[in-house]
Amino acid sequence: MSDLRSLVQREPGPRHAFLPRLNPDSLAETLVAFANGEGGTVILGVDSNGGQGDQLVGDEVEGALRAALALCRPPMRTEWQEEETQNGPVVMLRVDRSSELHILSDGRALVRRGSENRPLSPTELETLVGSRSMGEFETDVVPGSAREDLDEDVIDEYLERRQQRNPRGTLLPKNRLLQQIGATDSEGTPTVSGMLLFGKEPQLFLPHSRAVFVKFDDSPAAFRKDERTRQGTSAGVEASHYLESEAGTFGYGRREEITGPLARIVERGWRVIWEEMGKKAVVKGLQREDQTEYPPFAVREALVNAVCHRDYRLRGSSVEIHMRPDSLEIISPGGLPAYITIENIVEEHYSRNPRLVNGLYQWGYIEELGLGVDRMIEDMVAAGHPPPLFDAKSHRFSVTLQNRKDLEKIIPEWEQHMNERQLKAMQFVQANGSISNRDYRQLCTHVGAETLRLDLVDLVNKKLLLKIGDKRGTRYILR
After folding, report:
1. What is the CA angle 466-470-472, rounded to 5?
2. What would the pLDDT profile of 391-401 be if each residue is shown by its tens digit?
3. For 429-435, which contacts have Cβ atoms below 8 Å and span 24 or more sequence positions?
4. Which CATH class is domain 207-409?
5. Is the N or the C terminus of the chain less surrounded, counting Cβ atoms within 10 Å?
6. 232: phi > 0 → left, psi -120 to 50 → alpha, else beta; which?
7. What's the rounded Cα separation, in Å, for the pair 270 and 268?
């Protein structure tokens, strides 16, 4: 038998509430507040001082809980257990933080603040809406659309890429697969995710699903480009506009509206950014390389994330790409989803649009799920730039790449693709002129000989080291 004092040792607060009376209305308010907050436990049948409330009976508790959940939109999952105390039964009711926004049947949205259930202000409500899951919005059918509005060539390209990524996967008939991945319903009508991934002209049905590129020019006199020197514009990209600013004013040098299904938006968005990024040619050996203003992976990752993670319920905003002389900013409508924050964005992963994410993953635009932000940061730092700036507002999230390269902070390319053991080996060679297998084993005493041998073979294959000698006389020198 539990001691009542052990159940009430915590004060009422953000994660604990006491309801001595079995009132469905009060219970519903607390459930909604916890689900919209960080979750919590409701202790029924006792007050915070240990005073006994209603005598609880199992059937009455279940009835009250059902009545309370009927007042919640949508209902949330709960778990409860009964504890026998010296003063009678007490029920512990647990509700987890929800990835959806919950409201009461009368339209109120509550959240737990301290020890109270407080209504959300309009600003707080916007923030919460922007952070919650789209739920089943991806599988809602698109009104007025039909199977013929999906592009067969785009679907076939997707199927080919999907098969390449999963060569042992089961081959399903095309229409069956579209239904399985949520691109169409059982009648073949396109869903939101299907239209975004495969639509012939998705912007006819979802006009906000475009992306807008703007290159700003804040120089005293913005340049004017001759349209005739450009060989037309790519399909799906509207005509460019070139402005000339008055001295001291702020204008833009190029503006593009990028349309089509998401894969095409990614391709065309990258093409436009590539055209406008500063580049210089560097000759390494006999090879000519283009060094870009920003690391290509960092740009593509920010672009893909904006397209696949934005909140498509927000119909008044599009993905925006702002290029300035000192920065590239990519803005995505919708706040960070669920429990993702600026502080945990590297470690935690959550998808607002799981079907869109999986679609672009199968397409090959997302290499490894959950690893992109890490590499984006690494590539920017390795190129001598500051880390990306992440900014989360109630209805938008932006990534800014700053064009502030510090040449002294550039990490050599060969260092970017080595493990710590190999770095030690390269440093040893630089200091001593060469390294043998025996030298390497003495450097890394905790690692097996075969692993170390393969490390050196890898450095030879990367053309960083040259192998000389044979058997016990083998040594490695800088190539």
Report:
1. 110
2. 987 678 999 99
3. 429/465, 429/476, 429/477, 429/478, 430/478, 433/477, 434/468, 434/475, 434/476, 434/477, 435/465, 435/475, 435/476
4. alpha beta
5. N
6. left
7. 5
**Helices 354-363/152-165 angle, 10° precision:** 80
Question: Do residues 166 and 365 lie in contact, with contact meaning Cβ atoms separated by under 8 Å?
Answer: no
Instruction: Record the tokens describing residue 369, joined without a space.
Output: 């799920």
What gap in Å lies between CA 15 and CA 97, rounded to an integer? 10
Domain residues of the chain, as ranges? 4-120, 137-205, 207-409, 413-478
Helix (H, G, I), strand (E, B) or coil at 331: strand
The 8-class DSSP code of residue 272 comes to: H
pLDDT value for 15: 85
Residues 6+ apart with CB under 8 A from 201: 149, 259, 260
* Residue 242: predicted pLDDT: 41
Residue with tokens 């509207």: 238
| Largest Cα span, the chain | 89
* Beta strand extents in 66-132 (DSSP E only): 72-73, 78-85, 88-95, 103-104, 110-113, 116-119
**Extended beta strands in 86-182, E state:** 88-95, 103-104, 110-113, 116-119
Cα separation, 23 vs 29, in Å, equals: 10
Strand bridging mode 319-324 / 211-217 = parallel
CATH topology of domain 4-120: 3.30.950
Residue 207 identity: P
Contact of 458 with 478, CB cutoff 8 Å: no
pLDDT value of position 194: 97
Structure tokens at 465: 């080291």
Could you say which architecture CATH assigns to the domain 413-478? Orthogonal Bundle (1.10)
- The CA distance from 209 to 152, in Å, is 20
Element (H, E) at 449: helix 449-461
CA-based nearest residue to 149, from 181, 176, 171, 178:
178
Summarize the chain as % helix, strand, coil (round to 5): 35, 25, 40
